[in-house]
Amino acid sequence: MQPAAIKTMKAGSTQLFHIEIEPVSKTNGKPQRYRVRHDVRVLIKSTPRPELEACAILLASGCAGCLSVTHSAAPHMACMHVEIAAGAAHARELGRVP
After folding, report:
1. Residues 40, 16, 62, 90: is their CA dihedral positive or negative?
2. Which residues have a Cβ under 8 Å from the Cβ of 71 and sit 6 or more positions away?
3. Residue 86 burial (C-beta neighbours within 10 Å; 0-12, 13-18, 19+)
4. Which of 84, 65, 69, 54 lies closest to 20 in space, CA to CA?
5. What's the pTM value of the predicted model, to 2 decimals?
6. Residue 73: phi, psi to the nearest 5?
7. pLDDT tens digits along 61-88
């Protein structure tokens, strides 16, 4: 996905990128896997670490700032924020760079 296709907002001087994650597999003793969406587009089909891999993809696309993550299956408003460069660095440390 190209950076121009990523929905962004300016929060002060930090650019904010939003994704939504949704579970795509049951656990059954294995790590749960998630689909990552931006608007209606699928950014990642299946991953156990959606936030970190999304950071790596965004950083590789030239995006910098903060990633806002919501969970589609949460019964309440669940949201987290991840600094993109830090999340991408952690994904590299774990060997999970797409």
Report:
1. negative
2. 20, 21, 22, 78
3. middle
4. 69
5. 0.77
6. -95, 0
7. 888 899 988 888 776 767 788 899 999 9
